[in-house]
Amino acid sequence: MAVLFIVLTIVMLACAFMAFRAKQLIVSALWLAGCSAILSLIMYLLGAFAVAVIELSVGAGLVTVLFVFAISIAGDETIEIKSIIPRPIALIIALVSIVLLGFMTISSLVSLPVTTETASFSDMLWQQRGLDMLVQSGLLFAAVLGMLGLLGEAKVPVKEKKTVSAKEPQATQSAVKPVAATPEVKA
Amino acid sequence: MTPLQIALIGVLGLIGIGLYGLLITRNLIKVVVALQVLVKGALLALVAAGTASGKINLGQSLAVMVIVVDTVVAVIGLALALQVKRRMGTLDVKELSTLQK
Prior knowledge:
The complex is a heterodimer. Chain A is an all-alpha fold. Helix content of chain A is 82%, strand content 0%. In chain A, helix 2 runs antiparallel to helix 3. Chain A is globular. Chain B is elongated, with a radius of gyration of 17 Å.
């Protein structure tokens, strides 16, 4: 069992590393989907069955579809230039964060009291953590409204047309005249 | 090594890789990818802590909330990236900074 966990963890970390090392954005999204799928398998083996299923469907399914949709609209732009923060400094910051986090986690796990749980998952989710579910539904509603506001683009070209026609009516008329005159010359 | 210790190594690795990617990436969509990797580390940490303390259902209910919030963050981040691409014509974070000009 430990060998399986080690192999899964190594593959998951490799997928996560390749997710931002890949040059093409679509390949990056696919590596992220693989990382989510292996993470859900690890969580299933740890005993968190419900979260594993949700992570597999949402993390590896829905989020990947969203990424592919966004990349297909925005285009696969590869930016091969130097990062803003130098890579050695970024590596040092990441390593220091890992060491501090690991120290805190290990020291708290040693003194963690092990208790038995009486409530089932549905009781815990809908009754004891009911406020969380309320916040989640409000958050989803706000996210849908935010998406509609962000993706709305119809008003921007209308404003540009209005300003052009109000400020420079003569310029547009003079620009139209030569176009209309060219067929007469040809005839 | 127990599965819990291996999961803890996975947590630290995911958070480290996500943080490093967040620091060095200049593409806006890849910033969202790095953020997703970072949050996956937090997700695994919640499940591992629930398993370690014997409160797996509490860990699962908290992890569900993290998944929902993570998805909302991804949706809003990608929508913002699309709008930036439409208006500015690029996804490069450095070119978006108007303070340099």
